[in-house]
Design goal:
Blueprint: E1 4-7, H1 13-24, E2 28-33, H2 37-47, E3 51-53, H3 59-73, E4 76-81, H4 96-124, E5 127-132, H5 135-139, H6 145-165, E6 170-177, H7 183-186, H8 190-198, H9 208-218, E7 230-233
Parallel strand pairs: 1-2, 1-4, 2-3, 4-5, 5-6, 6-7
The protein binds NADPH dihydro-nicotinamide-adenine-dinucleotide phosphate.
NADPH dihydro-nicotinamide-adenine-dinucleotide phosphate binds near residues 82, 135, 182 and 183.
Length: about 240
C-alpha cells in the first residue's frame, strides 16, 4: 500500500538513498533538508521528489513542516529521522555550542518529528518510525562525546517510544550504520579513515543503499513484528 513518507535530511547521502528506495516501493515521499538549497534543488530535479526545508532541531518548524505536508499530501505514515550533523572535537576543545547543536539536531530532531506525527499514526492504527543512530552511539568514538551521546540517546528514545506505539500498530526502530561512503565520512581525514577501514571486517565502507534496504524492510508490512530494535549495518565492525 502506498503511504506518505517523510525522510529528514533526505536530499543527500544516506537520506537520498532512503528517499529513492521508498519512492521505488511506491510511496509518496517528501525529502526534508536543512540548508543546502543547491543540493536539494538538484536532487528534486533529478528524482521528481518534492523537498521541504526546515531545521529538524526547531520544534515549531517540525510541527509546521509536517502539518503543511499533511495538508498537501495526506497523513504521514512513515517517518525516517535521518538528518544529522557532526561537530567533532575532543572534550577540552569542544564548545558548548558544538555539544548543543549536535544534541539539538540529531536527538532533538527525533523528538520534534515524533511529536508532529506519532499521535496521528497512533490514532490511525498504523505507522513506521525509523531513527538513524550510529555505530558510534553504540561503541563511542574519540572526539565525539556530543555525537555519541546524541546517537546513544536515539537508541534509548527508540526503545521507549516503541513501547508506546506497540499496541497501536506503530513500530519504532533504529538503524545503526557503520561507516558509509557519504559527504559526512569524506570529511574524516584520510589517515584516520584508512585506520577505520582497516577495522571493518568486510574490508570496505558501506554504501548508502545498504542502509536504505534496511529501512525498506522496517517500513514494510513484513516488518510489523519488529519494534524497539536496533539493526546494526556495519560490515561486522561492532558486534553485540
Ligand atoms: P550527510 O552529511 O551526507 O547528509 C546530511 C543530511 O542531513 C543532509 O540532507 C542535510 O541537509 C540534513 N541536515 C543536516 N542538518 C539538518 C537540520 N538541522 N535540519 C534538517 N536537515 C538537516 O550525512 P549522511 O548521509 O552521512 O548521514 C545521514 C545520517 O546517518 C546522519 O544522521 C548520520 O549521523 C548517520 N550516520 C552516518 C554515517 C556515515 O558513515 N555516513 C555512519 C553512522 C550514522 P542539507 O543538505 O541541507 O545540509
Amino acid at each position: 500500500m502506498a503511504r506518505v513518507a517523510v525522510v529528514t535530511g533526505g536530499t543527500r547521502g544516506i537520506g537520498k538513498a532512503i528517499t529513492d528506495r521508498l519512492k521505488r516501493q511506491g510511496h509518496k515521499v517528501i525529502a526534508n533538508y536543512g540548508g543546502n538549497d543547491e543540493a536539494a534543488q538538484a536532487f528534486s530535479k533529478e528524482t521528481g521528489i518534492p523537498v521541504a526545508k526546515w531545521d529538524v532541531g526547531d520544534h515549531e518548524a517540525c510541527l509546521e513542516g509536517c502539518a503543511a505536508i499533511e495538508a498537501e499530501h495526506g497523513p504521514i505514515d512513515i517517518v525516517i529521522n535521518n538528518a544529522g550533523i557532526t561537530r567533532d572535537a575532543t572534550l577540552h576543545r569542544m564548545s558548548f555550542d558544538d555539544w548543543n547543536d549536535v544534541i539539538r539536531v540529531n536527538l532533538g530532531g527525533c523528538f520534534n518529528m515524533a511529536k508532529a506525527t506519532f499521535p496521528g499514526m497512533r490514532e490511525r492504527g498504523w505507522g513506521r518510525i525509523v531513527n538513524i543512530g550510529s555505530i558510534n552511539g553504540q561503541a563511542g568514538q574519540y572526539g565525539q562525546v556530543n555525537y555519541a551521546a546524541a546517537k546513544s540517546g536515539i537508541h534509548g528514545f527508540t526503545k521507549a517510544l516503541a513501547q508506546e506505539g506497540a499496541k497501536f500498530g506503530v513500530t519504532v526502530n533504529a538503524i545503526a550504520p557503520g561507516y558509509i561512503d557519504t559527504d559526512m565520512v569524506a570529511a574524516v581525514p584520510e589517515p584516520v579513515l584508512e585506520k577505520i577501514v582497516g577495522k571493518i571486517p568486510v574490508g570496505r565502507l558501506g554504501m548508502a543503499e545498504e542502509i536504505a534496504r534496511g529501512v525498506a524492510f522496517l517500513t514494510s508490512e513484513n516488518g510489523g513484528f519488529m519494534t524497539g530494535s536496533t539493526m546494526s549495518i556495519n560490515g561486522g565492525q561492532h558486534m553485540y
